Amino acid sequence: MYDKSIDIIRPGALAHGSSVSEYTTPVFPIQHCGGRTSPEGMGLAGLLQQQIRKNGAVTAIQDSTDRLSYAELHQKALALAIQIQAGNPGDTSPVGIIIPRGLNHVLGQVAVIYAGRVCVPLDEKLPDSHLASMLENLKSALVLTNATHQHRLPTFRHTLVDHSKVPLMAVDSFHPVFRSAWTSSHILHTSGTTGKPKAVDSMAEGLINLSFDSSDFVRHGQRVGHGASVHFDSALVEIWTTLLRGATVVVIPAETVLDPMALRAFVKTEKLNVLQLTTSLLTVTAFACSDAFSTLDTLLTGGEAINCDIIRLIFDNGAPRRIINGYGPTECSIYTLWHVISQNEALRGEIPVGKPIGNLETFLVNEKGHLAQPGEVGELLVGGPGVARGYIGNPEKTAQSFVTMPQLKSQTTRGIGHVYRTGDLMRTDENGVHFYLGRKDNQVKIRGQRVELEALEASLLETRLVSAAVVIKITPDEVERGQFLLAFCIPTTHESTEGAILRAYISQFPHLMVPRIQLISDLPLSSTGKADRRALERQWYEQIERSRDFAAALEIDSDDVAVQVERIWLDVCSLPAEHLVPTADFVALGGSSIVAVMMITRINQALGVSMQARMLYENSTFEQLVQLVTRLQLNGDDLSAQSEQEIWLQDAQLGQFLRPQDTTIPHWQSPDEGRVFLTGATGFIGIFLLDALVKRPEVVQVACLVRAQDETTALRRIQETGRKYGLFLDLRKVIAVPGDFSLAKLGLDTTQYDHWASWASVVFHLGAKVSYVAPYSSHRQVNVIGTLFMLEFAKHQRLKAMHYSSSIAAYGPTGYVTGATMLPEDERPAPHLAAMQYDTGYSQSQYVAEMIVWSAIDNGFPVSIYRPGFVLGHSKSGLCNPDDFVSRLFTSCISLGLFPILPNQRKEFIPVDFIVNAILHISTSHNNFGHAYNLIQPDLTNAIDINTSFEILKRISRYPLRGVSYTDWVKSLSRRPDDPLHPLTPMLKEAVLGDKTRWEVYENMAEYGRANLRRALQDAPDILNCDPIEVIFERCLKTWVCQVESGLKKE
């Protein structure tokens, strides 16, 4: 059965910026594919149905732990398709998919096709703002996500994909929407000249044309490796060509793809028949182990110009049955031309890209638009099934690239002569075989991705850190090194360092390929007055030669690990440097996955270790890498002396299988509830929260878990804390519960534990251990294990919402270490692991604890996460916590008469009453569960840097203050043993990254997001309108001065 109202865009319609679902046209009768016929123009859903009927029990897809048969894939996709349609039956917009490579992603794509919608595979590594922009351009309303990403893009409707939880739907309960081959099936994004990605509207006929080509790229029953990133067009070949031919998709782990030895083993153990690799990845894999492909039937490569030396190497060491060289832009459904390579062609040194696939038509035309003769050079134009409709929302670029040339007589569904201009120059021989020659413009291909050099240059200029930029593609003589982009930049100021430029570039243009940066003082010009790219390239090669001379001069036979690693680093990365500083970062220097493979291979061979790709990225600085290699040599593969990072990652997995037993969540403010279970009541924020709770009429009682021997002692501790901050608590509502949340069952006996778990309407978990000098190990039991025990308590007896207090310190100094510039509130700490080793044990424990809480959210726990900034006193009374870091800092500076000058440093100061009011307001709505809230100044313009904070203090204080260097300030502090900040001098003095201390590495800290906070408080303007910091400082000053004068009296 076919739907007669199929989405088809009329000829030229998309050029006017229309959306993909505005036009309808009848189904076409027949489609021919390389001499074969797809009946009645059948689309992806219809053709997949044929395979399901024939191969129901055959494995359709498998990864390292699970597999789905064709029948299971079909039934689960039906269930998901129902969810997709049920959410908004009238919505026909494209569906974004933010799920990495694996079973869930493939299941998601099939479900979208079954629902009659268009798939938009997205790169989950891109920030939410960028993904949202891409989807808004497509007028999308729905995204499919897995558990890890379900809290992203909160303004979009979500459908969670977890194959283990999706039911097997009865096959007759829902029928897929059978769209024709001439409808849109996928939208993929490519780079553009303006830096804005182009949304390519691809039709199903392209994938079908490729799948049923007479070359039988994939055959029934074969096992096909799936290692491409899902947002790349090559992933569609691995997924859909495999499924449409009744074969099995075998997911290759990301780390395996980048490890030649592991990939070779995977190919053999998983008995792969077909493998697709980009030319760059093929090069480094073959260079490391040339027999990796000997057991394959078909090896397909493409994306860049092929290297004959590498192909000869494969032939000489055990080639697969056939090696196919493929060519094609995304706009023409992945592959347009391909060619089975012969050994003679590799020996001859010229490998063609072949002939058109299936029913595609190709033309070479000269500058006048006339057909080029065999042997003549012309631009390649492509017509026929597989040519995209155009770029959605970009009519100007569509009109430039998708043109009508009636003289070519190319009959397609979009009109006579509708072709795509590739911009690639080629020639053909007398047999019509194509040979790739180069580009007409400055577009290049790197690792399979098309890159507009002008876009990168314009984007670098937009950072305003450079006055001129020229980007070139470098192709090293040694093919195994891989190609890369190099940007020559003239800095605008002395602060425009390579690192600063890269951080700004990545922040503003996260979707663009990252070039290496080289600073220059002026640009060489050609005779036409334009930048001389060839001169710049020569200049770079000359620098590399000097660098290699230096590397060769290093002691060849040295057993020193640092010397050997430095020699490999300089050689592999082709760095024009005479020395590596300890903090030189592999990733920041533009180290691609290809270079990473080569680096790992060389180090493993030269130093006799077994380093994995994950280890390189977790130890990406030169200093860290040397330490890692040393540990590997001492301890072997199984590092018995576990690194701290490994311990954190292991601890972060605690509780991942903890799941609530029911879904009913009490509204804690309802008349029959109102019972609050609170930890941290003897802390600064906790006591103010307790004071606010007992004043609320809807709160019946507050049970405070306090570390104490008995109830009397516990209650006395609460009273003393209240008096300390001028609070006169209404103790009639307070129940003191002696216990300890770092112990199992909170240190209570079973009867008490069961009682309080049944009694509580809601849990506020604010308790934590805070020490700026103690290591992670001393924080672990309280902050990590204690959080796990509180989650168990929240689900025990009945499910209760938990409001968990974390810290902005959970990200560590990620701005300085990783280059991050923006931290949306729902961004999890995991990507910022590399920064945590430079922070305190307390921050490290918050990182791990928050990861545990996010896992709980993924598993269905109703939890909200609050990350307070640096807590000031009360905004009205000025009362402060004299023992916290903020009060100690300002009291110390006033007493010393000195403050440290710390450029590009922000401390997110916020008054305690704002934190309390925000938590209570956010906690009243169940709509706020599953998100994090940065409790900082809601208005970014009110946030100030640390130097401005000291200047305000200097202006309002009656004590004289002057700024000195950080080093001089610490020296002065260390000479005053009675200073309130003196106990923290070990932390303040210890260099953790190069010569920088823990405080200094917070330079250039990323901006903390505020969107969730502002949304949740939009109906509470009295809370949202927080006083400016200067006003709050004036109120807190009297507390700090009193502390100073009290200290002077003691002296």
TrEMBL record:
A Pfam cross-reference name: PP-binding
Molecular function in Gene Ontology: ligase activity; phosphopantetheine binding
InterPro entries named in the record: ACP-like_sf, AMP-bd_C_sf, AMP-binding_CS, AMP-dep_synth/lig_dom, FAR_NAD-bd, NAD(P)-bd_dom_sf, PKS_PP-bd, PP-bd_ACP
PROSITE patterns attached to this UniProt entry: AMP_BINDING, CARRIER, PHOSPHOPANTETHEINE
KW Phosphoprotein (keyword) present: yes
Record key words, sorted: Ligase, Phosphopantetheine, Phosphoprotein
Superkingdom assignment: Eukaryota
Gene3D superfamilies cross-referenced by the UniProt entry: 3.30.300.30, 3.40.50.980, ACP-like, Luciferase, Domain 3, NAD(P)-binding Rossmann-like Domain
Domain Carrier: 556-633
Family under the similarity heading: Belongs to the NRP synthetase family.
Entries under NCBIfam families matching the protein: Thioester-redct
Name of the molecule in the record: AMP-dependent synthetase/ligase
